[in-house]
Amino acid sequence: MNTQANLSPTGPIVIAAGGSGGHFFPAEALADVLVGRGYRVALMTDARAGKRTSGVFATADQFILPGAGVAGRGPVRALKGGLALLRGANEARSIMAKLRPAAVVGFGGYPSVPPLLGARLLPGSSRPKIILHEGNAVLGKANAFLARFADGIGTSFNEVKGLPSGAHVALTGMPVRPAIAALAGEGYTPPGDLIHLLIWGGSLGARIFSDIVPGALAALPLAIRERLQITQQVRAEDLERVRTAYESYGIAATLAPFFPNVAELMQQAHLVIGRAGGSSVAELEVAGRPSILVPLPVAASDEQTANAQALEGVGAAWLFRQPTFTVDALTPLLTMMLTDTGILTAAASAAAKLGRSDAAERLADLVETTLHHGSGGRYSSPIPPSPASSHSSSGHAATTVESKP
After folding, report:
1. What is the pTM of this model?
2. Where in this chain does the record put each Glycosyl transferase family 28 C-terminal domain (predicted)?
3. Is residue 405 part of a domain?
4. Which of 52, 158, 180, 378 has the maximal Cβ count within 10 Å?
């Protein structure tokens, strides 16, 4: 949708996101598109994310608000977190009373609560549109609280458990980094002389892969093992022991706590092993890569399991619950798929069919239709819901937002 300048609202569009990169990458991608369409953006975030000195937000108004998570905490810490969120909401309300934004877009997690709650607390005549994006197949706790106030909700999955009945929901996909989006449509080349494995786990979830994957690879047949090229995210405190293990097994491995060139690594990967966060799953889909997924067991709503099941259900991934992710279970699976690489090719094709490289544009379309046409906007024909989940408390089928030239 190309909105002419005279149709653009005078106030900015506030993006509410913080915490991990999984929430921040899609927020930046949306902001890039909105700025390209002539809108002004502002950022409301938390102290963990801090002030952005590069990218689209570097030249935008930025506001760091107080707040803390409450899910999975003891009563005292939950109370302190709740009070911090209320302070943040009051501060956000005061800022927005002066800023007069046209809309506030939240990306889930506790950093999105103060801005969106603050927007809701404004008088009706000056209240901005409230739009949520849900990156998982289960509505997160923050979004579950905020969904009742939302004028529009964009989702990354066809069906999302926990959406309230009657919500204005649109399937937009998960915005990914531009370098990942550029991989869409490149296709998949099965392993040849070398087999590139990418193992990632995020800051919280990498240790299980350090404990299990080296031993599983060491047990592979020599004809496979000598072709392996491993790139693995490893926590700093585990680097030495994991490096020593790979060296002792004679397996070539590049290890680091963080890799800045994820798109390049994804492009060369024949198989990805990792967690199942919303952003990670979206990147696998856009790039069209087969994966072995081990959902993070401490996720508040077990959303990573639902994400992984969505890929497993179409043959794009293999799902292991963490207790079952063992050397004895992983080795035969790897042996099978690295011997018959047609298995990997089929999974890559299934993943690519789910990818939405234009998700940032679709989400921007949702923002615009909500601004100019009210709650829900004007969407295209809905995706037929499954009988088990249509408009129920356990699931909600989204309509599709078509990206417009």
Report:
1. 0.85
2. 197-363
3. no
4. 180
Which of 70, 91, 93 is closest to 80 using CA atoms?
70
For residue 261, say whether it is annotated as part of any ligand binding site: no
Please indicate if the annotation marks 67 as binding a ligand. no
Q: What is the per-residue pLDDT across 60-115, written as a single tens digit (0 to 9) for each?
A: 999 998 754 445 455 656 566 567 778 889 999 999 999 999 999 999 988 889 99
Shared domain for 99 and 221, answered yes or no, is no
- Phi/psi zone of residue 248: left (φ > 0), alpha (ψ -120 to 50 degrees), beta? alpha
Domain containing residue 225: CATH number: 3.40.50.2000
Show the domain range for 364: 5-175+358-400
Nearest CA among 253, 252, 303 for reference residue 275: 303
The sheet with strand 291-293 has its strands ordered as 252-256, 228-233, 195-199, 271-274, 291-293, 317-319
pLDDT tens, residue by residue, 290-337: 999 999 987 678 999 999 999 999 999 999 999 999 999 999 999 999
CB of 319 within 8 A of CB of 313? no
Q: Does the annotation list 390 as a binding residue?
A: no
